[in-house]
Amino acid sequence: VFIPYNTAGDPDLSIARKAVEILDSCGSDIIEIGLPYPDAFADAVIQAAAAQSLA
Question: Where does the signal peptide begin and end (predicted)?
């Protein structure tokens, strides 16, 4: 089972949309899209992606 995670809008909306299209074409079973928020408590990579999306 392939379930990738992508932060919505990271690094910008057009690239995030293209990333989801590529993940879909690569056979993702499910694509998890995280909603960025300023008080993220996830790991550092997800915190950085959320901060960049909100900038």
Answer: none
pTM greater than the 0.90 cutoff = no
Indicate if 43 belongs to the active site. Answer: yes
Of 12, 21, 24, 32, catalytic: 32
Tell me 43's DSSP state. Answer: -
Q: How many domains are there within the chain?
A: 1
Q: Give the domain range for residue 26.
A: 5-54
* Structural element, H or E, at residue 6: strand 5-7
Assigned token pair, 27? 């056979």
pLDDT of 18 over the 80 cut = yes
Kindly provide the b/e burial profile for residues 13-47, where b requires at least 16 CB atoms within 10 angstroms of the residue's own CB: eeebeebbeebeeeebeeeeebebeeebeeeeebb
